[in-house]
Task: inverse folding
């Protein structure tokens, strides 16, 4: 054996040494996996003699009375719970005042694969926060990894008080038990869909009526005639997902749902059945209308190929005459603020959704709202104290928890101090609107059990004491237009997604792909006859893919929902 | 790369005659222990990190439930079910066609481009200019596709997009063209953007190869009166040919990888699917977003088999030129 | 200087022109990102920023550098890149050299053994479970050990080593050098360009990797730059479908949403500049004529 040369050996060993040192530093805290659920210290026997928030028996564990520690994971690519509790006011409060220690498991952008590894290795987080019907929730349920909380429901006051029982029933799993704790459930409309109109252009064109689809068409023609290339007459948002032009669809039939163009439904309710979207006369009519706008350059020619930043750009610089989408109040407000900086008479306002001539505008809905809210939290079998975590969620969704999340810590120096006889916060003289806004914005990622029914009233309690001028653009148009022009679509947004593995899951994906493709093709078609031709061919293809099966299955689930909701 | 210098084939005469021939296999092994020891650590590492997990390939033939983790045999065996599902995908032939066409285009245009860039850079005498150009052209590789896609979409937009404005000014068109929605333009846009993004980075290897060429050869050619063009053709290219061939063989093996992130970003308009959907984008939509784990593994296995076949063929053909992987 | 022929001069002019145009197109996106990163978020959202900031501000960078994990993240990323690159290049080169010897018993089998893994692999779950069982979770070594051998790089090294003239090896052997000695004293020093190239590729791969930390690292002090900045972006971007916001909150959140594009560009600059600047240093290894004089014919 020949000897190795010394210099090379030296380099090699120093490199190895460096890496060993770095590894050694990390070996000290070598956790076993993705979810380190630290056991809660002092696990006491189930306490039932502590004072509870309501007089009903039997009382549950009082959140904050003892230390509680668990791991929490947000199953999203764009959202992570904070690694350090002090980074967010709400969790800081929990740590300091409620003896709670939450270890955040972070996806750091790669949630799908992280979840796969957690499921495969059996290291699940204690609490998972995700979309209500995420396929992974179904997998966790099928594998028996979720903890049901039917037993806890009666022990804790808030969820059952603020969340209607019939909605709870919709949320139940196939085995009849409850696993999902809802977020942002509501008893009133929350939709922010609608049409936003550029005020200056409107006035310059003589403020014509904007009620029917014909009015819309004539208006867009006038805009193009006067402003040429400088102004985009009609700017739909998120067209690739059928959102912007979905509003037009809703204007061609009373009670039409723009959700019929959405992935979760992709069908049209007719009486007691769901029918094909491809054969729906209203859809054909609306796509013919859209393609006409496209051919005459009255609608953004880039609607399928631009990124959203471009849409925002055009709104902020006043280069659109009408902007439509399913969430228009944010940019509408920003645009209004921007344009008013240069000209106080400029800005944006909203109009009632356009309707085909002859239809009752009151039955035209720009958007819908779902009483169950948006996403959910579930507790997994990995949790050492599932009931305590449920108590935690219940506290968050109650008056005290919601007030802390929205207004900060209570106290004479804070923005609120104590609750009044109705359970709403007593705002103090120190109430600082700017600070409150900042608190809400920073707490946003950890608001996982929101109670819109409660908090909107609490906020209104404060806002109503303010003069009308201070009420802002978004609030005003939500109250005047977007909320009244939306309908309750809870029955159409729950339990209508088939399991991802399985024949129906495949049909769902294939028909969705087909739909999105023809949406683009018909919106840019060269003639009305083309629209019919494309849709006829699409119906054929959809049937071959098994579309009818999917519709029938969804019809069944929808009717079940209706029964539970008592519609 | 320096084979021009000497005609001797590599290591034709092994150092120790005792290492070949009639001695027994084991004693030969013992004698070459030092060389074997160079190889064994690598073998061990690859064995551990690539071969031990390879049982995962079998999940392509099962309905794999992720919760079984490594205990894959608890899952039901379904044979070729996922493969059939893949081949029976709606528009499967379109998928395959797009994948092959895009791959071929990317190869035919994207493979020579960095080589040509390296050759051009080699002709630059001004060292500062050369270094600057080298560094700048390698920048786009570091821009994510999201950024590059955004820029391309901006450039080609019908509302104030620079390309449309330019073409209209030059009176080549009357109205803005919807480049990003039209089937006819998609492949060109995709290939051009791809080539532009990677040309600088991919040329680095060829630049390194060219740097190893003996400058005396060029001096001799100059004296003989050969033009630059001839010099490139007769000296540079033959000398870096081994590198080119190796990369070409490796490229053959990636033939079913027609692209993924770039297509997702540039084909925003769902109307483009008939020309833009390739195997990987389809599997992403159908397989991975719905967490159909076994399905994705099955397709991956299919692609691997095709790749290995292509690779073997390419290698066999290249053997005749003396440059092959094995 | 030799006089260039007419056709040669034309060619040179064309080449310079083409390279200049190409460089302009390549640098524009990068320059634009730099400009936008120094522009106010709200102003950026109105579009139209091209080659110079319209509303100059350092606010975006202030947000980026306010993350107290950033400094440590840089340390981790740099360590990982240096240690990872040196060890991987060395390990792979050694392996490649061993595989060049035609008298190596089992050579063909070995080569196929490696090439096979370029196309067939177990996938995410088996690999993850293996890494976990080796105790590499939450451990710096997870960045180093699994990527020590790159088959792709090994193939290129091997091709390069094979092309070195046999004469060099023979004279080394005659002087009493063994195979290891030859490797360290002769072959490696002559491999400047190829080590620089493959070292650069490896370094880039290490620096840009965001995937491994997402499933293997869960402690703050081991987070690399890519991850920390991605999280920062997520925290500052607002999901505009959140229900329940109106009043002053919406205004503030709207402001935060507006900073997104400018902030994204600032993070891009911070993440990309370090690795981009490595290349100019590496270029000096692409020196012509490194082989001249090594062999006396």
Result:
């Amino acid at each position: 054996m020949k000897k190795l040369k010394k210099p090379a050996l030296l380099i090699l060993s120093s490199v190895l040494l460096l890496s060993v040192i770095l590894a050694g530093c990390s070996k000290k805290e070598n956790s076993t996996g993705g979810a380190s659920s630290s056991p809660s210290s002092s696990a006491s026997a189930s306490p039932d003699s502590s004072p509870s928030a309501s007089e009903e028996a039997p009382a549950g564990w009082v959140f904050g009375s003892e230390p509680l520690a668990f791991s929490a994971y947000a199953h999203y690519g764009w959202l992570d719970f904070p690694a350090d509790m002090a980074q967010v006011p709400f969790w800081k409060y929990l740590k300091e005042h409620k003896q709670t220690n939450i270890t955040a498991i972070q996806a750091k952008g790669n949630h799908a694969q992280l979840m796969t590894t957690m499921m495969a290795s059996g290291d699940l987080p204690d609490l998972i926060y995700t979309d209500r019907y995420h396929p992974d929730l179904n997998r966790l349920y099928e594998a028996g990894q979720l903890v049901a909380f039917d037993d806890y429901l009666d022990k804790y006051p808030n969820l059952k008080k603020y969340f209607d029982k019939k909605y709870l029933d919709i949320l139940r799993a196939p085995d009849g038990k409850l696993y999902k704790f809802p977020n942002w459930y509501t008893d009133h409309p929350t939709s922010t869909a609608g049409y936003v109109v550029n005020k200056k252009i409107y006035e310059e064109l003589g403020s014509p009526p904007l009620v029917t689809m014909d009015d819309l068409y004539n208006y867009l023609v006038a805009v193009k005639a006067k402003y040429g290339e400088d102004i985009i007459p009609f700017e739909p948002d998120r067209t690739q997902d059928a959102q912007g032009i979905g509003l037009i669809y809703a204007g061609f039939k009373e009670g039409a749902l723009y959700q019929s163009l959405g992935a979760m439904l992709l069908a049209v309710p007719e009486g007691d059945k769901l029918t094909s979207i491809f054969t729906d006369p209203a859809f054909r009519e609306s796509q013919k209308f859209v393609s006409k706008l496209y051919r005459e350059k009255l609608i953004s020619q880039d609607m399928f190929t631009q990124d959203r930043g471009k849409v925002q750009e055009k709104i902020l610089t006043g280069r659109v005459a009408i902007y439509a989408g399913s969430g228009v109040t944010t940019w509408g407000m920003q645009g209004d603020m921007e344009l008013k900086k240069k000209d106080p008479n400029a800005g944006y306002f909203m109009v009632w959704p356009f309707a085909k001539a002859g239809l009752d505008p009151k039955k035209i809905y720009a958007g819908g709202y779902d009483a169950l809210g948006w996403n959910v939290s579930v507790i997994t079998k990995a949790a050492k104290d599932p009931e305590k975590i449920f108590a935690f969620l219940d506290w968050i969704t109650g008056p005290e928890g919601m007030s802390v999340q929205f207004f900060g810590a209570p106290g004479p120096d804070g923005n609120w101090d104590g609750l009044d006889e109705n359970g709403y916060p007593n705002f103090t003289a120190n109430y600082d609107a700017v600070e409150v806004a900042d608190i809400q914005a920073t707490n946003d990622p950890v608001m996982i059990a929101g109670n819109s029914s409660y908090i909107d009233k609490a906020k209104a309690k404060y806002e109503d004491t303010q003069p009308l001028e201070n009420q802002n653009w978004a609030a005003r148009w939500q109250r005047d237009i977007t909320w009244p022009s939306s309908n309750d679509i809870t029955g159409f947004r729950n339990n209508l997604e088939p399991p991802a593995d399985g024949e129906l899951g495949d049909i769902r994906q294939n028909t969705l792909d087909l739909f999105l493709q023809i949406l683009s093709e018909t919106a840019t078609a060269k003639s009305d006859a083309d629209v019919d031709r494309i849709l006829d061919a699409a119906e054929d293809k959809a049937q071959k893919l098994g579309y009818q099966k999917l519709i029938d299955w969804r019809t069944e689930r929808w009717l079940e929902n209706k029964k539970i909701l008592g519609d | 790369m320096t084979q021009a210098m000497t005609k001797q084939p590599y290591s034709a005469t092994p150092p120790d005659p005792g290492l070949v021939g009639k001695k027994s296999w084991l004693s030969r092994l013992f004698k070459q222990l030092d060389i074997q020891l160079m190889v064994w650590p690598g073998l061990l590492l690859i064995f551990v990190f690539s071969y031990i997990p390879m049982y995962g390939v079998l999940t392509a033939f099962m309905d794999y439930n992720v919760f079984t983790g490594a205990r894959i045999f608890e899952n039901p065996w379904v044979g070729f079910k996922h493969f059939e599902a893949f081949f029976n995908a709606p528009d499967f032939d379109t998928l395959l066609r797009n994948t092959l066409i895009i791959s071929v285009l990317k190869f035919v245009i994207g493979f020579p481009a960095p080589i040509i860039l390296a050759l051009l850079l080699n002709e630059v005498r001004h060292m500062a200019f050369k270094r600057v150009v080298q560094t700048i052209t390698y920048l786009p590789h570091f821009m994510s596709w999201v950024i590059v896609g955004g820029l391309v979409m901006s450039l080609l937009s019908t509302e104030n997009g620079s390309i449309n404005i330019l073409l209209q000014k030059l009176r080549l068109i009357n109205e803005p063209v919807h480049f990003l929605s039209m089937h006819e333009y998609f492949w060109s846009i995709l290939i051009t953007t791809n080539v532009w993004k990677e040309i600088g980075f991919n040329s680095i290897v060829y630049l390194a190869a060219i740097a190893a060429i003996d400058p005396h050869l060029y001096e001799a050619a100059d004296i003989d009166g050969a033009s630059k063009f001839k010099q490139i053709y007769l000296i540079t290219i033959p000398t870096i040919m081994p590198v080119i061939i190796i990369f070409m063989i490796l490229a053959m093996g990636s033939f079913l990888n027609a692209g993924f992130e770039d297509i997702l970003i540039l084909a925003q308009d769902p109307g483009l699917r008939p020309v833009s959907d390739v195997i990987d984008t389809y599997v992403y939509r159908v397989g991975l977003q719905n967490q159909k784990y076994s399905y994705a593994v099955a397709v991956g296995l299919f692609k691997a088999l095709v790749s290995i076949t292509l690779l073997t063929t390419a290698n066999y053909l290249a053997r005749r030129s003396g440059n092959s992987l094995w | 200087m030799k006089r260039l022929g007419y056709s040669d001069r034309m060619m040179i002019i064309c080449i310079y022109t083409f390279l200049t145009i190409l460089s302009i197109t390549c640098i524009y996106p990068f320059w634009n990102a730099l400009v936008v990163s120094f522009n106010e978020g709200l102003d950026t959202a109105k579009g139209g920023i091209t080659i110079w900031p319209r509303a100059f501000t350092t606010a975006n960078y202030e947000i980026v550098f306010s993350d107290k994990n950033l400094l440590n993240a840089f340390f981790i990323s740099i360590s990982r890149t240096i240690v990872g690159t040196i060890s991987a290049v060395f390990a792979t080169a050694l392996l490649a050299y061993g595989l060049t010897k035609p008298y190596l018993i089992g050579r063909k089998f070995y080569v196929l053994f490696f090439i096979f893994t370029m196309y067939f692999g177990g996938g995410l779950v088996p690999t993850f479970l293996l890494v976990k069982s080796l105790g590499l979770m939450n451990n710096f070594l997870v960045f180093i050990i699994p990527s020590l051998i790159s088959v792709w790089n090994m193939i290129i090294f091997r091709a390069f080593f094979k092309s070195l003239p046999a004469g060099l090896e023979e004279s080394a052997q005659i002087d009493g050098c063994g195979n290891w000695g030859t490797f360290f004293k002769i072959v490696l020093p002559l491999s400047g360009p190829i080590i620089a190239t493959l070292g650069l590729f490896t370094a880039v791969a290490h620096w840009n990797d965001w995937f491994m930390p997402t499933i293997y690292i869960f402690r703050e002090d081991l987070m690399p730059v890519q991850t920390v900045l991605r999280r920062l972006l997520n925290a500052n971007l607002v999901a505009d479908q959140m229900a329940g916001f109106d009043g002053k909150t919406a205004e503030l959140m709207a402001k935060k949403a507006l900073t997104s594009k400018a902030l994204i560009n600032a993070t891009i600059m911070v993440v990309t500049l370090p690795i981009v600047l490595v290349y100019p240093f590496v270029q000096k290894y692409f020196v012509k004529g490194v082989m001249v004089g090594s062999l006396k014919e």
Remarks:
- The first helix of chain B runs from residue 25 to 31.
